[in-house]
From TrEMBL:
Protein name: Uncharacterized protein
Lineage start: Bacteria, Bacillati, Actinomycetota, Actinomycetes, Kitasatosporales
Length: 90
């Protein structure tokens, strides 16, 4: 498997949810689930990665803990996002 460069972003502060998504390059993506922890999402992430119809040709983890898998033009990602609990000021 190809190892890709890690991101330089830090983990979000405060309460974090883990968003599992999949899609195709240049086609957008779909949110498959939102999880309270990375551990809870490990099984669904593995299942989504196995559903990629091509051989996995890249898998990596970013510095913020996000994990990704890619096969052909298909991808699966599990990424941390801050839980927003109040209106945001722009």
């Amino acid at each position: 498997m190809e190892r890709l460069q890690r991101s330089n972003s830090a983990a979000p502060a405060g309460t974090v949810v883990w968003v599992l998504s999949s899609g195709e390059d240049h086609e957008g993506g779909t949110v498959l689930g939102v999880f309270a922890s990375k551990d809870v999402a490990k099984g669904p992430f593995a299942e989504a990665a196995r559903s990629i119809p091509f051989d996995i040709d890249g898998a990596w983890q970013d510095e913020d803990g996000a994990v990704h898998a890619r096969g052909g033009c298909d991808w699966v990602s599990l990424e941390p996002h801050p839980l927003i609990t109040a209106p945001q000021l722009n």
